[in-house]
What we know:
It is built from two helices and six strands, in the order E-E-H-E-E-E-E-H.
Amino acid sequence: MIKSVLPNIIHQHAEGEQCHWRLFISGELAFFDGHFPEQAVLPGVTQLDWAVKLGCDAFGYNANVATLEVLKFQQLILPNTYVDLVIEHQPQKSKLTFSYRDGDKRFASGRIVLNGAMNTERAS
C-alpha cells in the first residue's frame, strides 16, 4: 500500500469560497510505479485523494466523504507535469467541486459531498 503524499505545491491562493493550487506532479512520486509500464499515469484515485485532503483542510471539514458525483477523467496526468487544482466550496450543501486543469486543458473534475462534519479544531 502506498502512503498518501501530497504533490509539490508551488503556490496556493484562496478567495471567498474558492481555493486554487498550482501543483508540480513529480515523476518521482510512488503513485506512478506500475501504473502503467508503457507510460506512467497519475491514478484517478490519487487525484481524488488530493482533492479531498486539500479541500477539506482549506474549508475546515473532517475528511468524511458521503458520496462522489460526476467524476470525469478527461485527460491523463503524466509525470513531471504542472497542473492547477481549483476547488469551490458550496457550504449550504457541504459540497466541494474540484477540477484539475492547465489553461484550457482539463484533466479531471467532480463533486465531493461531505457528511457535513466541520473540523472543530480548525473552526476555533
